[in-house]
Write a structure and sequence with these properties.
The chain is mostly helical and 287 residues long. It has 16 helices and two strands. A two-stranded antiparallel sheet has the order 1-2. Helix 4 packs antiparallel against helix 16. It is globular. About 9% of the residues have low confidence.
Length: 287
């Protein structure tokens, strides 16, 4: 019998995948440790891990959606999700390059299991959102190269005059430092925090506070060096799955509520039609 001490960012499904080779065997660990709610484990908890031969028949394991007390009775939402394949991602995102699919696929499967995006409906909803947010896996860093006209249209609150917009146009670092100053845990414009903690990852993670929480979750210093959130595919996906989990978006995925998910990611409903098109394809492929 093995033991494991829970660390920040761990989930039972992720632990089950690591030790038992299958994230869907997380209920075996929950039963062995008398954990009534598998979605709630605490950092520092010492878990008993069954040996491979003790894990029991896979067909007897309850679905992750049932364990998470899904709020819908939809048959589709409770169906256990499998690992996503490159061919499936290509069907969902026809404009994604084969190289980018290959780059992000391992992290996608790993991080979806870790954060219990582990039913076909949860996977479909999550992939639809990252497909839109990343431009079919093309973008991992926020593009802030705005013209003066665009600054006035998009960020008029921060550039109320033509003169100010002209002074910042086509200067992404200056634009980010002003637009994101004094919020989300960032310092003032002179601090440069707005640029340092600009949007990165497949769901554009933005602001010092979010980077600090991601640091805590992954035990990786993204405050001193936030660039791996864009440059390392595991963290680019991990930032998205962490954000998804931190906003309890599995609950809304179980309800098949793309509007609620979009609002919590985007702050509004920008690109909703595009997200819905990705979701329709994802459902047809994964469900």
């Amino acid at each position: 019998m093995r033991t494991y001490t829970v660390k920040s960012g761990d989930t039972l499904s992720g632990i089950a995948k690591t030790f038992l080779g299958n994230g869907n065997l997380y209920m075996e660990i929950a039963k062995l440790n008398n954990i009534p709610d598998p979605s709630k484990i605490q950092v520092g908890m010492v878990l008993k891990i069954p040996d491979d031969g003790e894990s029991g028949a896979q067909e007897e394991v309850a679905s992750p959606a049932a364990a998470a007390s899904a709020t819908t009775t939809s048959q589709a939402s409770s169906a256990p999700g499998e690992q996503v394949t490159a061919a499936q991602l290509k069907e969902i995102m026809p404009n994604a390059s084969d190289d980018n699919i290959t780059l992000y696929l391992p992290g996608l499967n790993d991080q979806m299991a870790k954060f219990e995006i582990n039913t076909s409906l949860r996977q479909a909803q999550f992939i639809a959102q990252i497909a839109h947010e990343s431009g079919s896996l093309r973008y991992n860093t926020e593009n802030l190269n705005y013209s003066a006209k665009a600054l006035l249209a998009v960020f008029g609150k921060y550039f109320p005059t033509q003169e100010e917009a002209d002074a910042y146009a086509r200067q992404p670092e200056k634009i980010a430092s002003r637009v994101y100053a004094n919020r989300m845990g960032n310092g003032d414009e002179a601090s440069g925090d707005g640029w340092k903690f600009r949007g990165r990852g497949l769901i554009q993670l933005t602001g010092h506070d979010n980077y600090q929480q991601l640091t805590n979750a992954f035990d990786q210093d993204f405050i001193s060096n936030p660039d791996p959130v864009a440059d390392n595919p595991e963290y680019a996906v991990g930032a998205a799955t962490w954000f998804w989990d931190s906003r309890d978006l599995n609950t809304y995925a179980d309800q098949d509520d793309i509007r609620a998910i979009t609002k919590r990611i985007n702050g509004g409903y920008n690109g909703l039609e595009d997200r819905e098109e990705f979701l329709a394809r994802a459902k047809s492929v994964l469900m």
